[in-house]
Amino acid sequence: MASRLPVIDSDGEVSDLSMADPALFKPFPDLPKSLQAKLRGRPKVAVTKERIAIRLSREVVEAFRATGKGNSLTLYSPAP
Fold first, then answer.
1. Cα–chain-centroid distance for residue 46?
2. Beta bridge partners of residue 8, listed in sequence order
3. Is residue 63 part of a domain?
4. d(Cα 59, Cα 77) in Å, to the nearest integer?
5. For residue 57, what are the domain limits?
6. How many domains does the chain have?
7. Does some domain include residue 72?
């Protein structure tokens, strides 16, 4: 079994791993499949938002920002 670096030093402080030998680290494909699944991130959702880009005049953007916190919610609400 490979030796592990101590995470906590003799003073109870967390060790600095930035100076650790990079050869001790394993490439992602070499990790067990169960660990890879945990490290991949959140599962993809079925329905996602669609990304679009629009250009608005400065006056329009300032008007929305002037409404205060949650101004993007106003953009999401459907027009009557």
1. 19
2. 14
3. yes
4. 20
5. 50-80
6. 1
7. yes
pLDDT digits (tens, 9 = 90+) for 18-53: 766 777 788 889 989 988 888 887 777 887 778 888
Is residue 58 included in any domain, yes or no?
A: yes
Mind giving me the DSSP string for the chain? Answer: ------SB-TTSPBP-GGGS-GGGSPPGGGS-HHHHHHHT-SPPPSS-PPP------HHHHHHHHHT-TTHHHHHHSPP-
Q: How far is the C-alpha of 46 from the C-alpha of 43, rounded, in Å? A: 10
pLDDT tens, residue by residue, 2-22:
566 667 877 888 777 676 677
CA distances from 13 to 8, 22, 74 (A): 5, 21, 48
Residue type, 1: M
